[in-house]
Sequence to fold (288 residues):
Amino acid sequence: MKIGIVGGGAVGLLTALHLSKQHETALFVRNELQKRELNNKGIRCNKLHAEVEAFTDAAYFNDQDLLIITVKQYDVPAVLEQLPPSLPVLFLQNGMSHLDSLEPLSNPCGVGVVEHGAVRISNYEVSHTGKGVIYLADFHNFLKGEELAEELTVEGFKFLYRENYWSMLAEKVVINTVINPLTALFNVKNKEILLNPHIYELAEKLCLEACEVLDLSFEEQWKRVLRVAERTGENQSSMLRDLLEHRKTEVEAISGYILKKSDGRALYHFFVVNAIHALELKSKGESL
Fold:
């Protein structure tokens, strides 16, 4: 299969590296420097190395059998403008705010959840900090999900099919809306959700609000949050890394989604959304 990976961040690099073992894989990136470095040096991850063909020109989308979109959620609209009609697309974003923009697409669409930990080191290097799986589900008119998951799976990099896209994404949103903003606000690793009693209490409140908005079982989701915080205890959340590297965060796509769906009634989410935006301004050196 000819697969185009759109996005040269940590998830894009990691996915392209592994899928290139078995598929003809192209990587679409934003700038010429990253394209040149990838074409000259390939992708490096720990002890693994893969040659890759990188592009900045979306015209090459047409050569692919499948596009996997790994850009941050706030960059999705720009990608949608360049999609060829009818080309199957799999979206791997945090949050759920992008779903409304996928509704009018004529393309067969799937959505997915990434449970790997990855950190981009450079334009062509990525560190695989936690092994997991990628779940995918049909959003509308997608390819046969179970068969696609099996075809995409390569050694050490597994795809699994989920029948219900909404519950798959909602469960991930709960985890992200608890762990990401709190670790970013307090500049701590994920394990502090468990170790610091004050952060623990805030995490519980955020989880409860999210579950009420999404109509999920608090008891079940809280157990999942705690398991993830323990399993990824030594990791920095993606939101914390974004702040440390002076990048825009995905707080609107994650916590902002819960706040919007609550009609402003999720007060803990109201606080963390505005607090993260304040830190974004601070990290850019702008006055508040």
Q: What stands out?
A: The domain at 167-283 is CATH 1.10.1040.10 (N-(1-d-carboxylethyl)-l-norvaline Dehydrogenase; domain 2). The two ends are 50 Å apart (CA to CA). The mean pLDDT is 95.
